[in-house]
Amino acid sequence: MQTQPVIPAVDPIPLPGPVWLFWTLLVLTFFLHTVAMNCVVGGTLISIAARFRQGSPFYRRLAGDLARKIPSLLAATITLGVAPLLFVQVLYGRFFYSSSVILAWPWLSVIVLLIIGYYATYLVSLKGEESRYRYAAVVSLVIFLTIAFIYTNNFTLMLTPGKWPGKYHANSGGLNLNLDEPMLWPRLLHTLVAAAAVAGLLVVLLGLVKWTRDEAYARFLLEHGAYWFIVPSMLQFVVGALFLITLPNYKMLLYLGDDWRGTLLLAGSLVATLAAVLLMLLGLRSRGTPHRKAIASIALTAFALICMSLMRDLLRSAYLAPYLEAPDVHTQWNVVLLFLGLFAGALVLWGVMLRKYFSRA
Amino acid sequence: MNYPVWDVAFGSGLLIAIISIVHVFVSHFAIGGGLFLVVSEKRGYRLGDPAFLNWVARHTRFFVLLTVVFGAVTGVGIWFTISLVHPSATSTLIRSYVWAWAIEWLFFFLEITASLLYLYGWKTLDRETHLWIGWVYFWSAFMSMVVINGIITFMLTPGGWLQSGTFWDGFLNPTYLPSLGIRFAFSLVLAGVYALVRATREKDRALRAKLVAWSARWIVPAFAALPLFALWYISKLPAGVWAGAQGRTPTPSLHATLILAFAAIALAGSAWALLRPRRFPSAVSLVVFVAAFGTLGSFEFIRESMRKPYVIYGYMYSNSVLAHAGPADGGLSADRVRERGVLASARWSRYKEVNPGNQVEAGREVFRLQCQSCHTISHYRGLRELIRDKNWDESAIYFRLGSLDKMVNGAMPPFVGTDAEKRALASFLAGLNPDIRPRHDLPGPSPEMTGGKVFEKNCSDCHVESPDDPLFSRLRRRGESEIYDVIGRLNAVNPAMPPFGGTERERKVLAAWLRGKVAD
Predict the structure, then answer these.
(1) Residue B501 sits in a domain of what CATH number?
(2) Which of A60, A285, A289, B90 could form a disulfide with B83 if both were Cys (CB 3.0 to 4.6 A apart)?
(3) Residues A5 and A135 in one domain
(4) For the segment B425-450, what is each residue's pLDDT rounded down to a tens digit?
(5) Which of chain A's residues have a Cβ under 8 Å away from the Cβ of B348?
(6) Please, are residues B463 and B469 in contact by the beta-carbon 8 Å criterion?
């Protein structure tokens, strides 16, 4: 039901930093979050699929190898998810809070679901492949898909204030979803198919790391990972197109010539994906080590993901353009610089810690 | 008022309380427990005790599984919850302290990475590197508390921020340091408490005794330091805040009693563990655990309820109305809402005005906008039961709405809105107990009715029995008949006061009692 949109007033407190800085941090941390999230969701899927595959004994081994990595990847997903959640509130708080309240119970249920799904991944990871707990992986996958579904509901509802009053007044207890949104399912599908492809690259990467120690298994990982990367990536051309045509006409045209940034980003992500698939195929056929081609393929996919994160941001700006005002900014530079300095320091410490760990382990 | 109000039948405030207390009980453990692990590991090396070290390694797994999963996710959960229940306050905090949160996130990131490496490193790393990662873990966790403590204390004592609006004025506020002391001491207590519970599950009796004594050594001194930090904390509270928390305000008064009881039990139990580690029963460790949970829970309850009627002290009331008008207040300050009316000011209200056809429904809407952030109809802080207990009819409610900010030691924000809205709210609230009759219609008082009881029933919502209270100071040295006369025209003395609701006999008894109190 479309009615007169109700937009909350802008918070009287000015933004404590320049918009470009918040925007950069939002897009950057969101991209990193997406990579980790894709590895968790797609990785769980690949691990479960491998568990049920007969044939090579490598399937069971892969299932276990992936399952053991999921908890740490999930920790990364959550940690990297906190930052964009913070910055989206800075830039789009009025929209985000409103849609969250309308979907309050599903939204809050994410916390409970996540705790259950998280412990399920640890159960599989700690109890091992042979225990009866390995089926907990299915529970965690279902939970992750549900969380993705709820997130897509909230982050699409956030874009359409016209629908808020109708939904809110129909149920002010927060039992709503955004099922009437045309882009809901294609957008969700677009994300999940990407997750499978990116997790395929994780398997490829695993193969590259293990190349010198166990080439037979590594080659299996390369081929199996490439399969998971290539098939969903090609499927993405259909799903992505579907997503595009469910957008309202003028928003679709942003990516088809009306806006040079959108058009460039779409073209960039398409070309990068195709090139990544091609390189991966070449890597599979190469007689020697496939490292250079596979890594180039991974880099191109990362580039495509960055393009897609920017396209996502562009779409949000297009939806919210009628309601956005230039914010009042009062930058507190001493704190901004403190943050940036600590950011650099934390990054160095993080790197040193990982290096120490992996060089001594 | 700026955002849609989320209707939670059992009380959205209770939801925040539950999630927060569960979270802090784990997040404080995440700090103290980190220190406990590295210090215990070092001790194990020094003593050359493999059984002890083996236990520390197993304890690490428990620690990581609890803090990294449950602790971290419930932390995000608080954020989800406050943005649903208090979106306006969350927005204020985010805009004022986004950089603090961003900095905390850096430490959080280091903390999570280090905790996983520390866990997995037990098997693979040399001692030195493993301990180094353990220290990185502890310091990151500690620093994340150093940051978040600034935001939490800011909400109660925003200090110079109210005038300057600058980051550091609010962050390094009066209660910052004592609160950090309380929280750090408590995180050491919890390090010992969790270890104690797990220690008593050990089968090896010698190891069990060693672990019980070691855990207790973390609890007892830290617990003993807590009252000192608490006194320091109290001394830094604005006088009004601490005074307001005492006496008649139900939540802090209850929890002040509870916290002493819980702390005494936890301390006694852990002293037992310290003095008689070999004979320390497992069940007592659970008692200590529950009592420690109660102590921390009560502390959080006291802190939250002392902040009433504000969510950010002196800036925003619990119901999101801004205390002071400003150029960019969006029409959501108390003065503006009073002018325009709450229904017209609230962006998401179903009714924009009160009219004869929607009296009760509009009143319900006013309730949702002004009262629901703390009250429910009949669950947590339920108004149906309160009104029934107090036997307030519609007019009694109406008058009390006029002086909400004087009731229960000033724990409530003033009612803001038009007179018609106040009447609509009174009519809605009165409708919750349709069988209540005005008090003077009720049968006469029971024979034991005393002046004190009449005072309790009729005056104590806004007045306290103290010579400084205006009721007593203004009646000083007046005669009984004069007091009797004043009781008969309360509403003329101060329009905010309801007319005396008692019977003729109660009026006489009260006059005589008051006369006795103010005679000197």
Answers:
(1) 1.10.760
(2) B90
(3) yes
(4) 999 999 999 888 765 544 444 556 78
(5) 6, 165, 168
(6) yes
